[in-house]
Amino acid sequence: MLTREDDIDAHALHRQGWTISAIARHLGRDRKTIRAYLAGDREPGVRKRTTADPFEPFVEYCRRRLAEDPHLWATTLFDEVVELGYTGSYPTFTRQLRTRALRPKCEACRPTKGRPVAVIEHPAGEETQWDWVELPDPPKSWGWGKNAHLLVGVLAHSGRWRGVLLESEEQAHLIAGIDRITRALGGVSRSWRFDRMATVCHPPTGRVTATFAAVAKHYGVQVSICPPRRGNRKGVVEKAVHVAAQRFWRTLPDEVTIEDAQARLDKWCQARGDTRLRATADGRSSVATVAAAEPLAPVPAAPFPATVTVTRRVSAQALVAYAGNFYSVPPELARTTVTVSVRLGAGHLDIAPAGKDEGAAAVVVARHRLAAPGAGVMVRDHGHVTALNTEAMKAATSQVPHRSKVRIPPGPAALAAAEKLRTTQTTAAGAEAGAVVIDLSRYAQAAEGRNTLT
Question: Is the pTM of the predicted complex or chain greater than 0.70?
Fold first, then answer.
């Protein structure tokens, strides 16, 4: 076998007019070997088999079998060829399948990577793309568990995008995030594009749900559902999601609050995202400039009246935390779980005890005006304050706490109880001594003494 270097030298010398015998003497090889490499019958670095390939008789069967079922497991096919007489090992068998490319590619299951991608036109004001992204390991102080939920909306033409951190991906939270992002983007496009999320459509059919149809009518938009397994159809929002995860979430400090994190994201979108340059017909313009020229419809004055419901734990001070503020409840609910309900567009929130049966109407125990998110204010009802102070005074005491290092001998009551206990024990011992005890060993000793000769 010739090395690649020898093969290069052999071809070069042959073009210079050297004979095969001269090249063979120069390289120290056999003439038949040089002739085979020059003719292209052999390749450098590839050793010719000296024995028959044991897999060769089964190539046609494997090719036809995998053409019938491209997803057939290699282990199943290996069992079949072993019954037909194959004696090789399973690793050798799978290597032969790979090197010979016997398994055909299934176009229906083939990923989009490597396929040609069509250019999708996005006219100005035509489409807004929406998507959720789960961001792992939120700060523990948020109390959100393993993941935070970020809703991202982007104008497909200009690339301008905004995001909202939300506690859940339920439909009410989705509507609240859509309303906030739409107002931040500056208007409503003619169409909203979603993937097959269950809060918007029925995933198997792609038909819009009745509840979200009312939302679309409120904002006056068309709803476009992506075809299944068409990830490139909403690639604009996918890129925005990638940017949000890598440039915002990756560097977020642990001590930041939810409201501060949202403010950081809004600031980044304005300072970094909107200043990106885009190629336009007139040259290059910033994203903010292109977005300002999009013909967007005005946002409705009031958001869709969906009700956002979250669960909260009441503090020892009978306060409930919501959106960076604190709201009071009756003191008997301290350290219990309650539900906070907020109707979008309303100026108040309702608090009700949690744990009610499904279908039963929750009894609202507190209603407060909504404070600005993240203001850090404490909204308390006068009646709740009075009741809390009363309960706190009942629990208060003027007694001096006990000291740990003092001498406290047994008192008269304890001494009397101890004397009674001693009397009871003495009586029980006497009764046990006066009882007749039959011990056969004593009889045996007496009998042994009588039988002994003196």
Answer: no
